[in-house]
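DM from R.C. (forwarded with permission)

"hey, sorry to bug you on a friday — could you get me a structure for this? deadline for the figure draft is monday and I only need the backbone to look sensible"
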Amino acid sequence: MTAFLLTLNALVCISLVILILLQRNDPASGGMFGGAGGAGGPAIRNPLATPTAYLAAAFLILSLVIAYTSKGGGTHHSVVGEVDAATTEPKSETHLLDIAPAEELLPEAPQTPSPTEGK
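My reply, with the result:
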């Protein structure tokens, strides 16, 4: 059931985007999307406005139904509760890698004579 609702919601969403993109940009749009707004004369009704409103309502209702039906879909358990504290042991210093001190890893720096030795 949820898969059907999700598919239907995706189709409604795609149709809604297509309908919105197909709407024309007229001056009576009241300044939306670059329209001049109130340019005189009667406002011409967009024929795609009604199907767009219906699809928007369908998208909203389907989204709410999907959210409501998937809210209680199964038992919820914590992954943290599955870990047994007795089987996990804390890491101690014996488990750490033996790392040599930095002095042993770095090559020796060349000896530079002091400014007073050369005189």
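R.C.: lifesaver. The radius of gyration is 35 Å.
me: no worries. The helical segments are 2-22, 49-71, 79-82, 102-105.
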